[in-house]
Design a protein that fits this description.
Strand content of chain B: 25-35%
Oligomer: heterodimer
Radius of gyration of chain A: 30 Å
Strand content of chain A: 5-15%
Strand order of the largest sheet of chain A: 2-1-3-4
Shape of chain A: elongated
Order of helices and strands of chain A: HHHEHEHEEHHHHHHHHHHHHH
Structural class of chain A: alpha/beta
Order of helices and strands of chain B: EEEHEEEHHHEHEHEEHEHEEHEHH
Number of helices of chain B: 11
Distance between the termini of chain A: 31 Å
Structural class of chain B: alpha/beta
Distance between the termini of chain B: 34 Å
Mean pLDDT of chain A: 77
Shape of chain B: elongated
Number of helices of chain A: 18
Helix content of chain A: 55-70%
CATH class of the largest domain in chain B: Alpha Beta
Number of domains of chain B: 2
CATH architecture of the largest domain in chain B: 3-Layer(aba) Sandwich
CATH superfamily of the largest domain in chain B: P-loop containing nucleotide triphosphate hydrolases
Helix content of chain B: 25-40%
Number of strands of chain A: 4
Number of domains of chain A: 2
Amino acid sequence: MRWPALSGTANIVAVARREFVTRAGTRSFLISTIILVLAAAAVGLAPVVVSYLGRDATQVAIYVGAADLQGDPVTTLDALLNPPVDPGGATSPGPVGTKPFQVTRSTDLEADRQQVLDGKLDALLDIERGASGELVFTVYTSEPGTSRTALLSRQAATSIVVSDRLGRLGLTPADQAGLFVPPLVTIRSPDLSKPAASSQTATEEATKIAVNFGLVIFLFLAIVLYGTWVARSAVEEKSSRMMEIILAAASPFQLLAGKVLGVSAAALLQYAAMVAAVLVALLVEHQVASIVLGDSAGLSLPSGISPSLIVAFSIFFVLGFLLYMVLFAAAGSLVSRQEDVDQIIIPMILLATAGYLIALYASIGIVDPKAPWVIVLSWVPFLSPYMMLSRLNAGEAGPLEVGFAILLLMAAIVLAVWVASRIYAAGVLMYGQKPSIRGMWKAAREAR
Amino acid sequence: MALVVETLSKRFGDIQALDGITFAAQAGQVFGFLGANGAGKTTTMRIVLDILHPDSGSVTWNDRPAAIAPRRTWGYLPEERGLYPRMKVLDQLVFVGSLYGVPRAEAARRARRWLTRFRIADYAERRAEELSKGNEQKIQFIAAILHDPDVLLMDEPFSGLDPINVALLKDAFIEMRDRGKAIVFSTHQMEMVEELCDAIAIIDKGRVVVGGSIHDVKRQDGRQVVRLGVSGDQDLDWLDSRRDATVMRSGLDYHEVQMRTGVDPESILREALARHEYVTRFEIVEPSIEDIFVEHVGVTMTDERTLAEIGAEPNR
């Protein structure tokens, strides 16, 4: 009987197929897929979630202990805390629900202080007349003294004092109201071709960070989770002594490639399910928003995930993932017992964690995303999947830079496959020996 | 059609694992590969399979380098037996078959046929971890031959099997041999060698110390053994006084006498006839493979006999 000519591909497919069926057929795979799909939907709905969390206005109450206070402190504070967002209008009447600060008058100092303690009020401003005749202010708040509420309250106190002094000088409250409308201040980037930074609202900023967090965390999780899988699966063949049977039929390279592709196929199946969840979330975003946030006619949601970001993410995800998987497989082949896997994969985990942390810090501003070392690191193959994603999301990276990073990443994969299949060939028949750099080097040189 | 191994050498660090191994295994024959533990049997097999590379020497199959022969030429049963513990038996066999290019459906059909033949058809859907060691070994044997290889390399295929399974496996061996396969197997069980092998190589410390067809090996040995039985007085003191012969074993019926090279066995017969009333048995026998093995691998006779008496034949 004649069989079709054997090529390397047939063996790679056979190994990958076994790997995929073994992995994707388990209950834990199903459960983790469900969890990841839910998480992905949450990332897709990040704008709604952020809007929902920021929906409650900051509640500030004013207790007026000074009976002869001139002017209405509530109006003054309200005008000050809720500056106009519409450059055309002098004030922003808008619906009550959209104001970031809600100012009310307090009638019972003790009761309302308790309310602040309970978290029902964010701040309570107590206005008393001091012995010298000047107003004395106390701000009761659980937030730190440097918080936005405290700072604005301090600013408001100044206005109320001035208003009080003006009132005592004989200016009517009606005339005063106009005095305290804050001027329109636009904040712009010094580079006039760039959009003004102020055009991003706080909600938009928060949404971008949430989306970035989601993507970076997902990439990190996928690398660590599936990397451990690949490494364990490489050890499985050694600990079950299956390795020699397979090596008689297939080359170490075919085994390595099949393993990485099989596990990656399982991972990408999960990934596809997640992308689908994100896309569905984007499609129904507005409907969900109107249910969660109430009537949102005319409510514009900040942009979260854009199609171009999904494409870039997919490319970086697949390439970065493959690069790490190849190395995890090579590392796994160096030990012969499952107990040793955790140790041997530590270098890869550290590398993945470094990229993950720098990318996260860059995205929330702890690390300056424009710093030269961050830009250089974002080209480094092991880090670029995370960091380019971060910089892309922040609008910092141009297409040229992204293309360059992708090319470097591809080159790194080719190099890694070459190195890894040598390590693999050397490692697979190395039972019980302690993996040392020298031993590995020697073994790799002896390997075919 | 022959597998020819020529002057293979391989060094691992300070250890010279192989030191010029040479032998040939013919198609349609069973070749026994004998040696103590660590003699280099497994290393030789790995080199033949191109899993390891020799420092020098060559391996050819039908006069062409073994490394370029299609993978499906080879069937291998490693000494370290392996199966994926959580995978079903049939799936494992189909997987290994597909690595050798057997289409999945065909592999499944063959696997079921072999499982039935080895009386373990019920285990097709079981996981490997549920099997007994003997049954696992039969599965591994099937995995090695599912793709119908031309050359079979088997490292200790009979170790740990009960007599019934040994018989099943032996039948399979003989059938494969009759179909023209070259079979190379290593073993410590000498009665297997006497029973199955057409040719052998005894290796020690990476060298072939004795090799060739069973007949040649026995003839080359140079030793002659005579089985002598006498009636009446069993006292063979006269044999002890002869310097050219030694009594190796004394049994109830006969004594096994080993003679120095060049001694005429008939001189023993003549002396026995002169000294005893009847000679009930006189037989010139070939030395057993076990004797030859022990002689060449350097375990001394006295060690062997002491061990055999205390152990009461533990390894038969």
